[in-house]
Amino acid sequence: MSPPERGALVVVGGGVAGATAALTISRHGLPVTLVDEQPQAGGQIFRAPTPHARRQVPPNHEFSDGDRLRALLAASRVETRPATRVWGVSPRMELDVLGPDGIDQLPARALVVANGATERLLPFPGWTDPRVIGLAGASILLRNAGTLPGRRVVVAGAGPLLFSVAHQVMEPGGHVVAVIDAGRRGDWLRLGATLMRDPARLRMAAQWMTRLRLAGIPIHHQTHIAAVHAAPHGLSVAVAKTGRPGVAYQYDDVDAVACGHGLKPTTLLTRTLGARHRFDSAGGYWEPETDSSGRTSRAGLYATGDAAGIRGAAVARLRGLITGHAVALDQGAITARDFARLTRRPRMLLRRLDHVSRTMLPLLNASAPLFRAIPDDAIVCRCERVRAATLRETAATGARDLNQIKAWTRCGMGPCQGRMCEDGARGVLAASCDLPPEEAGSFTPRTPFFPLPLAALTGTFAYSDIPLPKAAPL
Amino acid sequence: MPEPIPPGNENRSVPFSFEGRAMQGPEGEPLAAVLRRAGIVALGVSPRDGTPRGAFCFMGSCQECRVLIDGTLAYACRATVRQDMQVTSYVAS
């Protein structure tokens, strides 16, 4: 399909990739609109802290880098649309948005999708207790709202965010009861060698680990939460060794559990627009196919930053920069020679960092034994209360695809539209039929992407304004 | 929608209510965080099984922190504290 001729240059997502792309496009003299669901740009990593958080959390590079990004945007000619969420998109790349002034439509002749990552969640019995929260959510709460999830916190899941959040809990004086890591200790040690090529990340990781070790916090590798029970003095957390039956450790009097199993690209827009996607087996997720500049299989549609594959903030900035230049090139604002000159150095840096990020991907993935370990009574779909047993029974009767599972069980049909349960459901389904996870597919995205207030859709109208089709003859 | 806090007026403590209970909190801060600091984590119940639920993802995806603010549907993770706002649990129909 050829790109639409009318419409604006639109970037969706005000994180480091999207903001950098928009700034780059704007520097080439092109008008560009940045749509961001947050009231201030920064995305998740560089999210603007509240005044309370600025008082509570010691100054850190996420705050200062985010402030720099926001200052650059404020001084630029980028038209920002803050607090605006995309809830739909037409095949001609007309975005439906809901902002402070209600709904609006934004036709795009070039669309840069920079809407970042979504957390992968593994269900366990008890995870619907309100004291259990997502790992990324815990980080937002700690860093951007200066609020401890609880005083005694268990941190569980996989990936670097695990240790980052543990560190963030300790910073303002919270107590980390234990770190429950699905990864193997050896994986982290091997990663250390690769991280030598990325000294900034190595320094940060060393700082987290030293702090945890000095405080004597138990770190259990190759483990996962078996169940969380509400007890009179707080939550009781049972921990199992992956692949072995029974409870290996138990922690009581816990008042918050933060859990998350790595990140995956947010593909709602690229999938709705029919771009080609591939399954990245290392990361265990779908990502849009892109060229080295972020162009998808669809003309005029780009994906950049973590939305094009999880690589972290440093890579996201470089990707955003290169994609911004690519949009300028495709719009005829710069020549191919300019483009090659402008992207030479970013590409060099990107190659080195990208290698490190890719090495980390398996640490963020979840393997079949983890999904087999999910007990039958665990609720997988939080909205519709669908348990693992129901998914397994459905698989036993022949369901092989997530959309079949959805139609038969209502799993993924609730208000979150499967965002919380998709990975859990895919993993349980694939593990119970010995399928590769990609064969279980994905929930088909539906418009609106999130529940819309009906009033926002209808606006004000009179009954007589409604066109009534003539009734068909009987 | 979260509104920018007027300069010089940052985090003035204002009264509001949650489920009829009188609360006090810093204006402009995210409601879910302010309630959590006051020890309130359950914001509503699951329409399917009646079990307590609260903010889970803190980024507007999970839909579990839906509340009514002065009768209008809002997300506690995104909404901010305003003077005299009345927050009640959302009951799905």
UniProtKB/TrEMBL annotation, chain A:
Any one GO MF annotation of this record: oxidoreductase activity
Domain SoxA A3: 384-458
UniProt domain FAD/NAD(P)-binding: residue ranges: 9-317
Signal peptide: none
Xref: Gene3D superfamilies: BFD-like [2Fe-2S]-binding domain (1.10.10.1100), FAD/NAD(P)-binding domain (3.50.50.60)
InterPro entries: BFD-like_2Fe2S-bd_dom_sf, FAD/NAD-bd_sf, FAD/NAD-binding_dom, Metab_Enz_Cyan_OpOx_G3PDH, Opine_Oxase_asu/HCN_bsu, SoxA_A3
Pfam families, A to Z: Pyr_redox_2, SO_alpha_A3
Keyword field contains Secreted: no
This protein's name: FAD-dependent oxidoreductase
Organism: Gluconacetobacter asukensis
Taxonomic lineage: Bacteria, Pseudomonadati, Pseudomonadota, Alphaproteobacteria, Acetobacterales
TrEMBL record, chain B:
Signal peptide range in chain numbering: none
Keywords recorded for this protein, A-Z: Oxidoreductase
One Pfam family matching this protein: Fer2_4
GO MF annotations in UniProt: iron-sulfur cluster binding; oxidoreductase activity
Residues spanning the membrane: none
Lineage: superkingdom: Bacteria
InterPro entries named in the record: 2Fe-2S-bd_N, 2Fe-2S_ferredoxin-like_sf
Disordered: region residues: 1-22
Protein name: (2Fe-2S)-binding protein
Organism whose genome encodes this protein: Gluconacetobacter asukensis
